[in-house]
Design brief:
globular, two-stranded parallel ribbon, Papain-like_cys_pep_sf
């Protein structure tokens, strides 16, 4: 799939904001710990991916009801849903000047009902000719996402027969509908009910 930038300006994928707050000390300190012995982009990006995938619990798996959505919050609490984990990874990548953005899939339940937006990350290493998607959701039985820039190893492959969608756009910031759901949710259960079903 050909990925396309929502913003033509690559600087949009390096910017800090309220959500992707990579200028926050929590994000900076985490970034500094991940690959202290190298300035090389690939080992750092892989370390950041594995850190978020493996040490930040997906709250649906852990049962944690807290809602986190700023990168600094996600890293401080080590908790979040797929969107929050993706935001944290984007912030860690941008903290080391690696262009990164948010991508999405529209997924459905096993029987094709209850569609929901799933969050992914796109990154572009220095010198790379194209963007690559990775999925820091967190592995569990039946889910084996890996850091692979050549061949995608995402948590899920979309099923067209259930109207699932791979959106090709790389967003520089989360969509407003997603942010509204995060800001208004009192707990993860409420957030789950209010997440958008698609872009």
């Amino acid at each position: 799939m050909e990925l396309t930038q929502q913003s033509p300006d690559i600087d949009a994928y390096l910017a800090a904001d309220e959500v992707i707050d990579h200028d926050h000390p929590q994000v900076r300190e985490t970034a500094a710990r991940l690959a202290p012995d190298t300035d090389a982009a690939y080992p750092y990006a892989r370390a950041a991916f594995e850190f978020v995938r493996d040490t930040v619990a997906h709250s649906a798996d852990s049962g944690d009801q807290r809602v986190t959505w700023r990168a600094s919050e996600v890293l401080a609490t080590r908790n979040g849903i797929c969107h929050a984990k993706s935001i944290a990874l984007v912030a860690l990548l941008r903290a080391r000047s690696i262009p990164a953005g948010l991508c999405y899939q529209r997924l459905a339940g096993g029987d094709g009902t209850n569609p929901m937006l799933h969050g992914l990350v796109a990154l572009r290493l220095p010198g790379a000719e194209r963007w690559a998607r990775v999925d820091p959701r967190g592995n569990k039985p039946g889910v084996d996402a890996r850091f692979s820039l050549e061949n995608e190893r995402l948590a899920w492959v979309v099923r067209e027969e259930f109207n699932e969608i791979d959106y090709p756009v790389i967003c520089a910031a989360p969509p407003e509908a997603l942010l509204q759901a995060f800001r208004s949710a009192r707990d993860r259960s409420e957030l789950w009910r209010n997440l958008p079903a698609g872009l």
